Amino acid sequence: MSRSEQARVFHSLHGEGLLILPNVWDAGSARVIEEAGAKAIATSSAAVAWAHGYPDGQAIPADVLIATIHEIVRVVSVPVSADIEAGFARDVDETAAFVSRVVDAGAVGINIEDGSDPPDQLCAKIARVRRASDALWINARVDVYLRKLAEGEAAYDETISRARRYTEAGASSIFVPGATGETLIGRLVRNVGLPLNVLAWPGLPDAAKLSALGVRRLSAGTGIAKASLGHTHELAQNFLRDGRSQPFSEGPLASVNLNALIQRT
């Protein structure tokens, strides 16, 4: 599938129904998750950073992130969207230059966040990136609920205000992590205007309910990576304690030829 075809497919996946994204952290996890049935691949910034020995928060070297995106794109055939945090720059032109590298690596979408920065800054970044590309899917993350920048109705009002500004700047969808209640999510769907992305979170309704509410995108975020690291920790502890080999031949991938799965022709 060509890059333009992947971009078209990624756009269409936000058009109806619920796009579920089990976020990945490297090429191996991306290929396994594609094989599990994912229609698109999205990275988790935190999970990618952890996989390379860095904390989340733009601590990972930009070159390492770009190389990771390239390797993910190399092994999968579905569209890839990259979580680039705040764009790895404060200057809008530097952000656009970084996004250009992400696109050159093969991504057809990005996730870019406001964090604790003024929304003006993300507006300017989105507008600059949009001028450079009409085809790129820009998922604008509003962190009001995630970072508890406001409470109650004030949080809702601020989220809607930011969402509308990011829409005007050229965003393709709006990501509101930390929003969980059905009533709140329904209000966001009705008033955000663009496809709404929510994050897997304690208390979040299941996929069927989210779809009925009109949510268009559900992200696992760090969920799968954290669970995988937790399982690795448990296996290692048990092996260090008793040296039993049996657990390594159990599970859904125990009989799978991973070399054949990873290899792309």
Can you tag this structure with a few keywords?
265 residues; alpha/beta; TIM Barrel; 11 helices; 49% helix; globular
Describe this structure in words.
The protein is α/β, with parallel strands linked by helices. The chain has one domain: Phosphoenolpyruvate-binding domains (TIM Barrel). It contains 11 helices and 8 strands. The protein has helices spanning 3-13, 27-35, 45-51, 62-75, 92-104, 119-132, 152-169, 182-192, 207-213, 223-242, 258-262; strands spanning 19-21, 41-42, 80-83, 109-113, 137-141, 173-175, 196-199, 217-219. It has an 8-stranded parallel beta sheet, sandwiched between helices. Helix 7 (152-169) links the parallel strand 5 (137-141) and strand 6 (173-175). The model has no long low-confidence stretch (mean pLDDT 96).
Helix fraction bin: 40-55%
Beta fraction = 5-15%
SSE arrangement, N to C: HEHEHHEHEHEHEHEHEHH
Number of domains: 1
Largest sheet: 8 strands, parallel
For the largest beta sheet, what order do the strands appear in spatially?
Answer: 1-8-7-6-5-4-3-2
Which regions are unreliable across 5 or more consecutive residues at pLDDT < 50?
A: none
Shape: globular
Tell me the span between the first and last alpha carbons. Answer: 13 Å
> How large is the count of helical segments?
11
Overall residue-averaged pLDDT value: 96
Query: What is the class in the CATH system?
Result: Alpha Beta
CATH 2nd-level architecture: Alpha-Beta Barrel
Fourth-level CATH superfamily = Phosphoenolpyruvate-binding domains
Structural class: alpha/beta
Work out the radius of gyration.
19 Å
